[in-house]
Amino acid sequence: MSDVAGIKKAAILLISLGTETSAEIMRQLPESYIQKISYEIANIDYVNPDEVDEIATEFLEMAQAREYVLDGGVEYARNLLNMALGAQRAKEVIDMLNQIQLRERPFDIARKADPQQLTNLLLHEQPQTVALILCYMQPDKAAMILSQFSIEKQAEIAERIGTITRTTPAVIEKIEKVIETKFSSFVDNETESVGGVHTLVEILNSVGRSTEKNIISMLEEKQPELADEVKANLFTFEDIVGLERGDVQKVLREVDNDQLALALKGVSEDIKQFIFQNLSSRAVETLQEELQFMGPARLSAVEEAQQKVVAVIRRLDEVGEIYLRRGEQDAVIS
């Protein structure tokens, strides 16, 4: 969504809310935005009711998504939005929210830097500084940079990322100024909850299996609890649709029917159909019947059931029974 499109949407939303409410909202905005929105309002002669409904719905979904993210993080928001909106719409809302948040984050200059040049400079920085910067970067780019460090440094940086909870604006600003000074000679220009397990997981989901295994192995030695939490989150239940048919069937043979029914509670129809397609007609009939008569279930119970299915997937992957696709292509051994 471009700035112009965003400003126009804001203008249409304010028009639909009425004079009194709009005036109250406008008073809370920066002067520069008040001028831009006022210009758009002045140049709008007619608003299509369907367009108003669409923009109002988008605003409510984005507001809801922001609230979920603040409550429990991106994965928590994604799970709740999947249940409320369906997988496709939930992905669109999360993607839009991520784009907006990226424009608000610090370290813009590092986000636009050439990955190799950025790596060359970060190789000489302290692990805690590298970790902080990677927290604000695109996961695939952060993964590319992380894989260039030595195995020991990778683990140390990963540990820092996984244990960061909060960082003061003053620290961020100080580091950002230093980085901008170093990068200003070759970067054109153009990544706040910082760090934590989910940030580390996003990065590890984009690196190759060897890099991931090295980092996990080192974390298991230094911080076993962090390693366990990272491993539990590396593959989400929704990712099961990316498995090969034969692999899915191997997983489902090791999952208790009651556990599978609870895990499917509230997921999108696409995921349910994918599971049904990999079961016998009798098993599908039994599973559908159990889902029908299950009744309401606590979100925590559903998530626990889904995590047990994920644990089976991870175990089968580790022993080579199934294959999980990763960020890097496997090397070919002749």
From TrEMBL:
Residue ranges of every copy of the Flagellar motor switch protein FliG middle domain listed in the record: 115-188
Membrane topology field: Peripheral membrane protein
Record's keyword terms, sorted: Bacterial flagellum, Cell membrane, Cell projection, Chemotaxis, Cilium, Flagellar rotation, Flagellum, Membrane
GO-annotated biological processes: bacterial-type flagellum-dependent cell motility; chemotaxis
Record Gene3D superfamilies: 1.10.220.30
UniProt similarity note: Belongs to the FliG family.
The protein's name in its UniProt record: Flagellar motor switch protein FliG
Annotated organism of origin: Trichococcus shcherbakoviae subsp. psychrophilus
